[in-house]
Design goal:
It contains four helices and three strands; from the N terminus they run αβααββα. With 87 residues, it is of the alpha+beta class. The chain has one domain. Strands 1-3-2 form a three-stranded antiparallel β-sheet. It is globular.
């Protein structure tokens, strides 16, 4: 049985959203790589990514028809890194 990891974030976030934020704490990821890394239902993953983007937590960078995502805020990046160190 997998151990539950608890994150203390200043906003509500689903488990999938937390996984996305944790993945992006390592730096930008191409959208296809991020969706593959998350596993599960691709449509759910893309919906969660879009919700985080709409909330201003992650940023989309697009060039030459290639999309990649990154954390939109340095403070959020520090917070996620700090929470990951506690695990």
């Amino acid at each position: 049985m997998a151990e539950r990891i608890r994150f203390r974030l200043p906003f509500p976030a689903s488990t999938l959203e937390i996984r996305i934020l944790a993945a992006l704490s390592g730096g930008k990821l191409f959208e296809e790589d991020l969706v593959t890394l998350l596993g599960g239902d691709e449509e759910d993953n893309l919906e969660a990514i879009e919700m985080l983007h709409q909330r201003g937590l992650i940023a989309l960078c697009e060039s030459h028809n290639v999309r990649h995502w990154l954390l939109a805020d340095a403070d959020l990046h520090s917070l996620i890194k700090q929470e990951l160190e506690l695990v």
